[in-house]
Amino acid sequence: MSPQISFGKDAHETLPIPSALPEPEAATGAVPKSTKPFSAFQHRNYQLWFSGQLVSVIGTWMQNIARSWLLYELSRSEFILGLMGFVAALPVLLITPWGGVLTDTLPKRRLLIFTQSIAMSLAFILALLTFRGTVQIWHILLLAALNGATNALDAPARQAFVVEMVGREDMQNAITLNSMLMNGARIVGPAIGGVLLAWVGSAWCFLLNGVSFLAVIGGLLGMQVQPQAVKVRLEKPLAQFVAGLHYARSQRVIGGLLAISVIFGVFGLAYAAILPAFVDKVLAMSAAGFAWVNAMIGVGAVLAALAMAVWGNKRRRGKLLWIANLAFPLVLIIFAYNPIPAIALFLAIFLGFGFMLQINSLNVLLQLQVSDAMRGRVMSLFTLSFFGLAPFGSLLVGWVGEYLSLNLTISLSAVVMLSGVLWVHLRMPELRKL
Fold first, then answer.
1. Is residue 15 classed exposed, middle or buried when 0-12, 13-18 and 19+ CB atoms within 10 A define those classes?
2. CB burial class (10 A; 0-12, 13-18, 19+) of residue 167?
3. Sign of the CA dihedral running 68, 69, 74, 78
4. Which residue has the higher pLDDT, 231 or 74?
5. What is the DSSP letter of 10?
6. Is the dihedral of CA 334, 335, 341, 342 positive or negative?
7. Residue 433: how many other CB atoms lie within 10 Å
8. In the predicted model, what is the mean pLDDT of residues 153-180?
9. What φ, ψ does residue 153 adopt, rounded to 5°?
10. Residue 229: half-sphere exposure toward Cβ, Cα within 13 Å
């Protein structure tokens, strides 16, 4: 379920905000900004979060690489690869809105400890099945779906928890550093995962990922957090979710940003679902090559995150979003038709750079527009729009990839993304001035 976004000038009249919602001026984004590139690290809670997440996300990327390659080895099917992307992200579509309600209602740290513990258990189960040699395609798909359900609860809490760790002044810097962390792990995780995959097999990648969750759980337990007061009640979750939809739809800028998230999530990221097959059939590379392509995407993302951490407060993020929206699909088209591994690794850096500019800019711009009382629900809509609808793109490219060449399949998804974001920016030129 995705929000119906209105682009009209009278959007606030077509769907009034319920009286229980915060006043519009609470979400203008007029918050103080720290000028220090790494100001979030002055907060002890964020230091614990960053260090724990760094270990855990490296483990997650090790598992992602090993799981995708294992599934491809078992199936040799582009459609099955797309199906895994579908079942992994479908729970995000179904559960994330309620995750936003829980985030606005329950203590965020406790919710994160719960979700991280579940994810750890799932990693251990996959490791056990693989070590025993009994793992089957349906096992991988089922565990991917359960991981998706866990992430659907985890993502809104993870994003909304930032302001409790660092405050509004350092929130923008913390978001950028989080992005740098996630993609720094994308360099190290695939590199380690590729070596382990070729040396000792996928089961060890899954086991080490399970162990890595202890770092973030330990960091959460070691924090001293004073949760911010919320004004929502658990007994009416449906009403709370509907209020979040009303709020997002009534805000023209938030609606436009969510629309771009949908387009990028469905069509821009769809290529990742069939990337193992592309690496094998087009680039003629092995599992190690697949890991290196992902690592280079991570390199580009980290470079973008570093640039935004240092200069992000001095640049108009709306303009950066516009540039990235146009450049990313163009680079993806070139990537799709290039058969040379060395050039593919070089282009992967630019794919990661463009990815980071978009997701970071969308995250920051939304966080600065939304009020604290609605933060969890709006960020759940962001997760829903960016990742919750992605399974349909994954399933689509997997299906098309069975009939058309992988080059054409990936380039077609890029063309659709380019057309969509151009349409949004032409309808809403104010986004480039944010």
1. middle
2. middle
3. positive
4. 74
5. T
6. positive
7. 9
8. 78
9. -85, -30
10. 1
What letter does residue 200 receive in the DSSP assignment?
Answer: T
- The amino acid that residue 261 corresponds to is S
Number of H helices and E strands in the chain, helices first, is 17, 0
Core vs surface per residue 90-127: b (16+ CB within 10 A) or e: bbbbebbbbbbbbbbbbebbebbebbbebbbebbebbb
With 0-12 / 13-18 / 19 or more C-beta atoms within 10 angstroms meaning exposed / middle / buried, residue 226 is exposed
pLDDT at 32: 46
Residue linked to tokens 């924090």: 223
Domains of the chain, start order: 38-224+234-433 (1.20.1250.20)
- Rounded CA-CA distance 16/406 in Å is 46
Q: Which residue bears the tokens 């919750």?
A: 388
Closest among 101, 81, 205 to 152, alpha carbons compared: 101
Q: How confident is the model at residue 241 (pLDDT cuts 50, 70, 90)?
A: low
Half-sphere exposure of 78 (CA within 13 A, CB side): 26
Q: How far is C-alpha 188 from the geometric centre of its chain's CA atoms?
A: 18
DSSP string, 82-125: HHHHHHHHHHHHHHHHHHHHHHTTS-HHHHHHHHHHHHHHHHHH
Query: What is d(CA 321, CA 358) in angstroms, rounded to the nearest whole number?
Result: 6
Percent of the chain past pLDDT 90, that is, above it, reads 28
Q: Is 212 helix (H, G, I), strand (E, B) or coil?
A: helix
Quote the tokens at residue 422.
């151009």
Which one, of 247, 220, 245, lies nearest residue 111 by Cα? 220
- Three-state helix/strand/coil letters over 34-63: CCCCCHHHHCHHHHHHHHHHHHHHHHHHHH
Which is it for the CA torsion 45, 47, 50, 53, positive or negative? negative
The secondary structure of 335-382 as a DSSP string is: HHT---HHHHHHHHHHHHHHHHHHHHHHHHHHHHHS-GGGHHHHHHHH
Do residues 393 and 278 touch, judged by C-beta distance below 8 A?
A: no
Question: Is residue 234 scored above 70 in pLDDT?
Answer: no
pLDDT for res 362:
87
Q: Which residues contact 285 (CB under 8 A, 6 or more apart)?
A: 279, 292, 293, 341
